[in-house]
Request: fold
Amino acid sequence: MKRSTTVFLSATLILCGLLSTAGAVTLGGSSSSQASWFQDEAGADHFDLAQYARVSTRNFDSADTIRIDGYGRANGDVQQGEGVEGRLYYLYLDKKGLPGQSSVRVGRQFFFVSAGSALIDGAKIETRAAGPLAFSLAGGRNVLFSTTGEFTHGGDIAAGAQVALTSIPQGSLNLSYMVTYDQSDLATEKVGLAADKRFGKYGEIYTQLRFDVLSEVWNEIQVGARTAVVPHLNLAAEYFRTIPTFEATSIYSVFAVERYQEVSAKAEYELSHSVAIEGEYRNESYGAGDTANVGEAGVRYRPTDASSLYAAGIWRNGAGGKLAGFELSGTVAVAKKYTLAAGVQRDVYQRDQMTGKESASRFWLGGDVKLRKDVSVAARVEDNINENWNNDVRARLALNVDF
Reply:
């Protein structure tokens, strides 16, 4: 974590602590202390300790228009001894209730518009001062993470603007623009459009489009529909197409890429209050005539709201080979304090005609114990068996506290 981020986080947490002692100001959040054991692809053992913390300070005024939110992580590998690393996911001050139904958010934050998204150190302004139109504007330092921390450089900037029409009954429509700079050089420039419309009990349709201005291609096209007009039956269909594009400053931007598209359909039918049948089918196209058909069909049994059992078969045929497998998993609540979870997956596959059939299996067992209303302990053990590993055991233990 960079020094500026550390100072920013420390100062804000101190401020929250001081303010939480004054009057009606409240401080809440959650923490998760986790320990993980695993082996990497080279066979080296790892024992990772991590601390996650989420805080929220609010009630600074009687209308609760100001709040400070933060979320971050500190972790280190005890086995490898590589020191402690930190990652700040967000830390911002949010002010609502400004004239024109406006709000301002300042600090590290994630913003999303239909043209794209980014994590920034900056500001976001939202307003509805123009009747049925809602405007959003965000920009700042583009925060980029690597496996060992941040690698943002000077001149890395991300900004976006969006205008939305809010007067559509049971629907929405927005148009947006997003741009990023890599060390002050223009890296990406995209235009986006998103819309959805619900037709009462008949269902809804939705779409999202993204156009890459620099590459002059439709980077993403998504169109779908959902309906539950038939009692106990939920249906969904979607078309998705994308042409991957790279930043203009990347060496990979000169390479040609194939278009990917898929057509999918999903269905869920409730046989009874506790039994449902689920299914999904996808036709995938990778360009140059390569296609694949993928499917999954299963049964879900829910004897209670806190317990469930799922059994499914999966298959794939086409580009990438053939695959057939199954999954059996479930959770069960015991005495309202204990939750147990277990599952098994097994796949048999053949990558191409020159290779024989191979198999992969995964087994897991986990649970959650509620020690108090705001304190719980969660654990999970997993074993993977495939052509690369006779046994690949991974485990995680977490202490979760709400405050």
Remarks:
- The first strand starts at residue 26 and ends at 39.
- Helices lie at 3-19.
- The first helix runs from residue 3 to 19.
